[in-house]
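Support case: coproporphyrinogen III complex. Customer-provided input:
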Amino acid sequence: MTQKWFLRPFGGDAVMPPPVWMMRQAGRYLPEYREIRSKAPSFLDFCYTPELAVEVTLQPLRRYGFDAAILFADILLIPDALGQPVQFKTGEGPVLEPIRSAAAVAALQPDRVLGHLAPVFETVRQLAKKIPPETSLIGFAGAPWTVSVYMVEGHGGTDCERARDWAYSAPSEFGHLIDILVEATSDYLIAQIEAGAEVLQLFDSWAGVLSADAFRAWSIEPTKRIVERVKKAAPDVPVIGFPRNAGAMIPEYVEKTGVDGVSLDHSVPLEWAAGAIPKSCVLQGNLDNRLLVVGGAAMDSGIDAILKIAETRPFVFNLGHGIVPQTPPENVGRAVRRIRGEG
Ligand code: CP3
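Agent response - structure generated as follows:
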């Protein structure tokens, strides 16, 4: 049986070269992205226009031949679908009308979610037909904790203090918001699989601000419930978790959530992770995204160090966080060739 290269590690194989994709592989560092992005009136319209979303998903595949495509969308489509006003302001990032009371949670509209996100499923359906046959299609969502941070804070660039305060002071009230997100996110991911997604990633970008017990309650537990629901619907679709900056809590996250793979930020020593996390869980990561900006010999030696671990166990090459806009596109090409032993 021939299996797509990207899926081999999830079948337990340590393949060389490891499959490679990069978080934010579609984005502002690419001139062809900026060109097409300028045609959409807003970032949300862009995400909800299948023709444009499909095109920008394909752009990095044409340049670099990544082993996987990631659906072009955003983790904040879920709050938008729940009826919370969301805007993306140029130079400022996302701005939401913050939710800070039980009444505001009760006003969310879970019944709206799947209908509102229908254009995303159309994008996935078209991508499943248009990506090269050897490429895998990754669907994704934000993990409940990280999405709740944006919903409660109303914008990025905070230390998540309002969300943390609410979670500590009124856990059952805050837990109601998390429950709504668990349900909406599970439905959303299952619908992505039905439309053609072959792998899922759950982004918990703000996992690292939580204390150990709060991490168990608000990152591990909700993720575990989503993984259970997804596995019930589609037992064979691998799920990758990304508990960014969760450090020493990562092995417990892997064990308790049941994820098939874990994406590691660049602060995690790979030799430690390789000892602490069983080989049945694929490791993904974890080149510092600044090395992709810097390029040259520094980037090459960062890549080589990761490849030494990748040889020893099922592994997917990625960055520790998304590609930043200042990244020279030629550095991405050089990285992919180096990973594949071509340069
Ligand atoms: O190529 C891909 O990775 C697929 C698309 C994708 C986007 N966002 C597109 C995007 C994915 C997987 C995301 C995930 C996402 N979105 C996360 C989790 C990963 C992470 O980076 O921690 C988070 C926290 C968000 C929320 C978000 N979206 C922020 C904070 C911002 C503003 C910061 C920025 O980079 O502008 C966005 C906007 C966004 N999402 C852009 C893109 C390409 C840039 C917007 C633009 O083109 O105008």
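The chain has 16 helices and nine strands.

Case will auto-close in a few days if no follow-up is received.
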